[in-house]
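Researcher: Here's a chain I'd like modeled. Treat it as a single chain, no partners, no ligands.
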Amino acid sequence: MLSLASLSLLVASALILYRYVIYPSFSSPLSKIPSAHFTASWSPLWILWIRYSLKEVQTIHQAHVRYGPIVRLGPNEISVNCVEGGLRTIYGGGFEKSDFYNQFQNYGALNTFSTLTSKPHSIRKRMLSNIYSKSVIQSSTDIQELTRLILFDRLFPVLNAAASDNSPIDVMDLNDGITLDFITAHELGSSNSSNFIQDAETRHRFLKWFNGRNDFALWEQEVPRLTRLLSLIGLRPIPRWVDDANQNIDAWMLRLIRGTSQSLLKSNSSGDEKAPTTGTHPVIYKLLYAKNSFPSPQPWVL
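Model: Modeled as a single isolated chain. Structure tokens:
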């Protein structure tokens, strides 16, 4: 006859087996979806290893080719590769986001991308939907002036100087700088934006911070609890210099935002709503500042 301890262990084992193997494999609603790997229905280890090995794109593509437009990657994860009956249903059906998106908060506060529930997300999204429409972008005098400034005042002189000196240019590195200059200038105004096109030293330092973190992104994104546990016992999977890089990026961005905040406060106090004498308007920041009616510009509205 089984002892109480043995019976308790048997029952606990049966419950664990049902919860983590039988249910996800045979009873879960996701069990009807073909699995990309035979372990995917009950374990996330396969897809985590694929991501760690940097083979995610080609592996998931091959799974779709083999199994169809919807495949299961893990116990609670699927990949969807179709519009009708797939992406249109997901993004148009009011599906809530998972806690996975909490990691994309800015300065510990929600932004549009990290807002989990549908209604608050829709409210924030509508704040910017018009200003990013094709017609507004094509007719925007701010975009026209910003494009002229980026190309003629910043980029072309750099290219001309390199051509005159017969110096090589790292095109990918420079394109990253152009992209960041456009984005920050449109958001914060060109007088408070980055100037990575001309300031190559700062560009190289920033991109080293930014790109150097990529090899360690999986830990915080996919297994944050395990990452924190290992760190508590002294087995840090993410080097401290990655934390330093994140802090440097945060501080750098906050300096730009504070510069824009001060410019807006100065403009509001003087009652001057005309275009700036130098550079372009902080189009996105100014819009969100007005929509939210903050008593003072805040860094997290972006």
